[in-house]
Amino acid sequence: MTQHAGLSAERWAAFSLDQQILMIANEMNRAAGLAREDDRGRLKNSYERVLQLVDLTVRCHTRRTLLKELLRWRDLVAELYLFDPPRPDAHRALLRCLLLFTPTASQQIPHVLPSSRAPAAAPVAPDPGA
Is 89 helix (H, G, I), strand (E, B) or coil? Predict the structure, then answer.
């Protein structure tokens, strides 16, 4: 967890909730590509950074409903941290859930999780009688 070790709650509180959620999501997105056997240590480090950033977020907000949901989400990330082998589907679901915390963050879903986009309409064949 050395990457964010010097990040204080005061410094983290200077960011908006949108920015905090997006930075946590960035760390989750980084971890998404670390499912191979030789990446397990780096995956665990990423999850540790995610947990640390969530802890900082919880410390600098007072809205009870936000805190309750963030702590529930954190518990699920902690479960991923402990689970071996990695669970990519659960990871993607948690990343999507995190991005839904704020309207600004949710705008990133189609970019970060392309399979979450609505399916494209099937092409319409031209009418041979027209």
Answer: helix
Q: What is the pLDDT of residues 31-55, one digit of tens each?
A: 988 877 778 899 999 999 999 999 9
Distance CA 78, CA 51 (A): 7
CB-based contact 80:87 (threshold 8 Å): yes
Q: State pLDDT tens for residues 79-121.
A: 999 988 889 999 999 999 999 999 999 999 999 987 754 444 4
Quick check: bond before 123 cis, omega within 30? no
CATH architecture of 2-111: Up-down Bundle (1.20)
Q: Contact at 8 Å (CB) between 60 and 9?
A: yes
Q: How far is CA 46 from CA 13, 18, 66, 79, 102, in A?
A: 21, 20, 23, 14, 22
Q: Is 4 exposed, middle or buried (0-12, 13-18, 19+ CB in 10 A)?
A: middle
Note if the pTM is more than 0.90.
Answer: no
**How many other C-beta atoms lie within 10 A of the C-beta of residue 8?**
12
Instruction: Please give the Cα distance from 16 to 101 (Å, whole number).
Output: 13
